[in-house]
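Re: duplicated header lines in exported structure tokens

Our pipeline writes sequence and tokens for each protein into one text file. With two proteins the header for the second block appears twice in some exports. Here is an export where it did not happen, for reference. First protein block:
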Amino acid sequence: MNHVIRAIRTDEWPAVKRLRLEALRDPLAPLAFLETYEDALAKPDFYWQERTSTAAEGAFQRQQFIAERPDGAWDGSVTVLVEEAGSEDFLGHVVESEQGHLVGVFVRPEQRGTGVAAALFEAAVDWCRKRGLDRVRLFVHEDNARAEAFYRKAGFVATGVTGPVPGGSGHREREMVLRWPSDPA
């Protein structure tokens, strides 16, 4: 892998938008994202500018990492959202401790299996550790076996917590967490 893994910069909102739109056109998008291509495409530029600025390098509550090729093209992304203790998550559960929540995981199909996703996850998890978060979690669609297998390989384990996929599809998502080495099993 010859990519640079780094946080996005505020002025890169057009590239953030392009990569997100590409991710939403992926055949697996309905299993991985809660947004459609059409909805994202309709959003005005100021939406993308704000989305980028709140997840750019130096942001404290969220951080988006990208995998950048030597030619400047982006081949993947992951975003970390910080969930504060005492806040309510999207399932309506109270968050017990300050934690990272990985979302928006995407790697271009031709880069899957090359180490790009692992490098993105390493950067995101490292940011969470440096930020002092208690744990890192994510949710995976019950029918997204490929993603779940990758998450397990990356050290995430299922917690048994599940919830409905927003939108009323009848499908469920499973919570997976990465516990720090000092955590009890």
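Second protein block, exported in the same file:
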Amino acid sequence: MLPDGDQGPEGWTSRDKFAAAVETSSLSESELGEYCRRRGLYPEQIRAWRLACEQVGQGCGAPDSRAKRDNAVWRGRYPLHP
């Protein structure tokens, strides 16, 4: 069970992000867009979470610089496209 869509990704745990990445892995782009709208997310966030989960030894919440940047993106403090 994932957090409410009303709060957006703030406060989501690594487990929540992993669950969202898995849950959306088979969705089409339009289905992903609908999922994200319901949850208050952006497709780029889901993609970043999936990528973080796929990296060997990184997990969905590793404290490396990329994870810190992705975390800033999730919280809306860093532009997606510099």
